[in-house]
Specification:
Elements: E1 6-12, H1 19-33, E2 37-43, H2 47-53, E3 60-63, E4 66-67, H3 92-103, E5 107-112, H4 118-129, E6 135-140, H5 148-155, E7 179-182, E8 197-200, H6 213-234
Parallel strand pairs: 1-2, 5-6, 5-7, 7-8
Antiparallel strand pairs: 1-3, 3-4
Helix pairs in contact: 1-3, 3-6, 4-6, 5-6
Length: 245
């Protein structure tokens, strides 16, 4: 795994009601994805200081100087900040994605039970988004077959996984993997015994959704879009966006 140091900063003004929660979130992510990750609190106590650091609101989390939402837009004012759903702290996955981006993983494994839907779509999307020097696998503890709905959902966005097959964890070269991501929601996730950093992005199995063909297709699309949103944050390239997405 990469030995590169990573610094997480939590920027907040004194009295911010969400500053402690943001700090605890950053520390939890650092502990899970470390070693070599430090967490520092940065107090922003005046408008001048806010302008100096390009303050986006309290609390903000930066990884190696880059905001987790990859925005450069700044009010430079002592104001509160809100995230998805009106929450006062960013979602945990977003902080994890920013840290992973800084760590530059080279071998990524996506795991679920059947290796039929979520992990297969994650593999396809990650292969599409990741730099050429990143190798991506997916596997399961009880592999079955790749769901045709997963193939169709990715085909809609120009990604072909029709040649994929479901694989067992034992088929994956453990010594080439530095990052393992489990995607199980309601099931018990497989165990990977190799030496790698581990994350858990629990997502509901779209294959468990009943109803009409349209309902099922929409469930796979929802999972696809959520995976694409998160993996785009991991494998983002170039300059930060000018506005928050």
């Amino acid at each position: 795994m990469s030995g590169e140091a990573v610094r997480i900063e939590v920027l907040a003004f004194d009295g911010c009601p969400h500053a402690e929660a943001a700090t605890q979130l950053a520390q939890a992510v650092a502990a899970r994805l470390g070693p070599g990750i430090t967490v520092d609190r940065v107090e922003v106590d005046t408008p001048e200081r806010a302008a100096e650091v390009g303050f986006l609101g309290s609390p903000s989390i930066r990884v190696n100087g880059l905001d987790v939402e990859r925005t450069k837009t700044s009010t430079g004012a002592l104001c509160c900040r809100t995230y998805d759903g009106g929450l006062g702290v960013p979602p945990e996955w977003l902080v994890e994605a920013a840290v992973l981006r800084a760590l530059s993983p080279r071998g990524v494994l996506f795991l679920c039970v059947a290796n039929s839907a979520r992990s297969q779509m994650a593999e396809g999307i990650a292969r599409f988004l990741a730099p050429p020097d990143v190798t991506v696998w997916s596997a399961g503890s009880k592999p079955t077959r790749v769901r045709p709905e997963a193939i169709a959902a990715l085909a809609e966005i120009g990604i072909d996984i029709s040649g994929h097959r479901s694989k067992s964890v034992s088929e994956v070269p453990a010594d080439e993997i530095d990052t393992v991501m489990t995607l199980c929601g309601e099931e018990e996730c497989p165990v990977f015994l190799g030496g790698a950093r581990r994350l858990h992005w629990g997502l509901r199995d779209p294959a468990s959704v009943g109803g009409s063909d349209t309902d099922r297709a929409d469930a796979f699309r929802h999972t696809r879009d959520e995976l694409r949103r998160r993996l785009a944050a991991v494998f983002a390239h170039g300059e930060p966006e000018g506005v928050r997405s």
